Amino acid sequence: MANNLRPFVGKEQQFLQEGTYGENFIITSVDRILSWARLSSIWPMTFGLACCAIEMMATAASRYDLDRFGAGVMRPSPRQTDLMIVAGTVTLKMADRIKRLYDQMPEPKYVLAMGSCATSGGPYWQHGYHVLKGVDLIVPVDVYVTGCPPRPEALIDGVLKIQEKIRKESNFARKKQERANV
Amino acid sequence: MNPEEIHQKLQAKFADEIIAVNTDALDPYIQVAPARFLEIATFLCEDPALSFKSLMSLSGMDYGAETELGVVYSLHSLAKKHKITIRINVDRTDAHIPSAETVWRTADWHEREAYDLFGIHFDGHRDLRRILCPEDWEGWPLRKDYIVQEYYHGMRVPYQEDWQKYETFSRNPERGHHVFEFESKVPGLLNGSQENGDDSAGKSEDRTDG
Fold this sequence. Notes:
The complex is a heterodimer. Helices cover about 35% and strands about 10% of the residues of chain A. By secondary structure, chain A is α/β, with parallel strands linked by helices. By secondary structure, chain B is α/β, with parallel strands linked by helices. Chain B folds into 2 domains: about 5-125, Beta Polymerase, domain 2 (2-Layer Sandwich); about 150-210, no CATH class. In chain B, the strands form 3 sheets. In chain B, strands 1-2-5-4-3 form a 5-stranded mixed sheet. In chain B, strands 6-7 form a two-stranded parallel ribbon. The chains are: A alpha/beta, B alpha/beta. The interface of A and B includes residues 126, 129, 132 and 137 of A.
């Protein structure tokens, strides 16, 4: 990510003023409030590939309740999602489909590689003839979560890392760069 | 019926097809020739005294790189409460067996699996496609002389450092397939530097040959 997409790093406090105009008034920038809105409603895509998906389901269920962080709205269509949680072993047969799903997601989009299989091939890295050795070979990964499978707390921590990443992004700078790229 | 009686019944009808019998094994088996297997299967299934209506399992086998492939049929009769195992061995270069898919519906996907992973062709199967691997996959993965393809749809299949080893390794004649030495696979992993890793790769190759 280019540096110009992170105007708030190190000076976030300047953009949040409380108490200047009395109670119940906060002064901030539109850019920052947009980022806040986006990070508070990350919609993950509903798909699981292996046993990590069981932990992902447990994370989304009531005991760990991923919805506390706004990330519990699992969408069945890639067109409506912001976050792809790659939960499980990525076989080469599935890798084509994952690449297609990622391409179908609208920008801005994020990928979370959950567990050692999605990160590096896991136990199949050496002799697994059918396993992709890390999903980062086909899609750009933002956050890696370790574990086999990771605890729900670890997945929640990964989602919080995604939130921190979104918080530091500037929507206007990203739009500007997208226009420049076109 | 005990396995010996089942063998007698088969012997009376298909004497020329039976190659070997072992009724003392934990799973008593009868090895038959592949040529008239469809008739044998139909007889086993429909003979009132045998009545093997249930095909519990169909397994592909590889008995080593220099020997044969095989298929093992585990049969069970719910009505008669007896079991038997049928074995068929076929040549590695020309693996063809008549399909029993029309006799037992169970055989449909099981035969597709054996075809997918061992390359055993079941003649007469109505839908013989790969069932687990992608349809454009190369080779038969569970064969002992299988060498994985380098790329699939532009994605690298073996781990990067493994491929040099794949290209240079020699087949182990005793076990019929490839044996890797771990320290030689990832140069520098154990010794800490690239140069040392290459040295250890050379040493471990010597050890493999010895």
